[in-house]
Design brief:
Elements lengths: L1 E4 L7 H9 L7 H20 L4 E8 L2 E8 L3 E7 L3 H10 L4 E6 L1 E3 L8 E3 L3 E2 L7 E5 L2 E2 L3 H9 L8 E10 H8 L7 E8 L1 E2 L5 E2 L5 H6 L4
Parallel strand pairs: 1-12, 4-5, 4-9, 9-11, 10-11, 11-12
Antiparallel strand pairs: 2-3, 5-8, 6-7, 13-14
């Protein structure tokens, strides 16, 4: 897996990550969602540099100009519900992309720390020979991404897979590296070293879905 960790660079991403983590600032749900959306835009722009391109002749009011434009057919897949703001950021830049959505939630039997990730809904076009971009803001254990990969196995073989995340854990990244194709590319704004007993990233930022849309039952 090719990992693009932008925490190591001095970019505006660091400001948006700082605001997402801040216990006071993150209480503003609109700002929280917008910061994730902006991270999606920046990571999408960086991702776009790796796509294939073709020459397109554009007619202007004063003449013609050859422009290099993306040639890949993209499918953007987001994890409901936490992935919606990140999906929006990517879609702001890849506005011609097809879209897919998958549900995923943690099931804790008897409220114990042990859990399994359940995915029971997938709406997607064919991904055969297309570039699949999976967006999930929190790459914690990596089990959600593994479930997504398994869910797509009967929907065609993609030409390329990209994963876009806001914050990940070192363990989660190591987990998916063993399960995704070697040429998969991960685009991530920050990486934390630890997970707690319930599989949440530490220090992380909390529950991205709840912070974006309100606490669920």
């Amino acid at each position: 897996m090719i990992i693009h960790n932008f925490e190591k660079e001095n970019t505006l991403l660091n400001q948006f990550i700082a605001e997402l983590r801040d216990v006071k600032i993150q209480k503003d749900r609109m700002r929280f969602r917008r910061n994730i959306e902006r991270i999606g835009e920046i990571l999408g722009y960086e991702l776009s540099k790796t796509l294939s391109y073709r020459s397109s002749l554009v007619k202007t009011p004063l003449g013609k100009k050859s422009v290099s434009v993306p040639n890949d057919k993209l499918v953007l897949c987001s994890v409901l519900r936490a992935g919606i703001p990140l999906h929006t950021g990517l879609l702001n830049y890849f506005d011609a992309a097809e879209n897919a959505f998958i549900s995923a939630f943690r099931y804790h039997p008897d409220e114990s720390d042990a859990f399994e990730v359940i995915t029971n809904y997938l709406a997607t076009p064919s991904i055969a020979n297309k570039t699949l971009v999976i967006s999930d803001p929190m790459l914690a254990t990596g089990k959600t991404l593994e479930n997504i990969l398994n869910a797509f196995k009967e929907r065609g073989l993609p030409k390329q897979i990209h994963i876009v995340a806001v914050i990940g854990s070192r363990d989660g990244i190591d987990y998916i590296k063993k399960r995704f194709p070697e040429n998969t590319q991960l685009w991530i704004a920050a990486v934390d070293e630890n997970l707690n007993s319930r599989g949440y990233i530490v220090p992380g930022l909390g529950d991205a879905g709840d912070l974006s849309f309100g606490t669920k039952l």
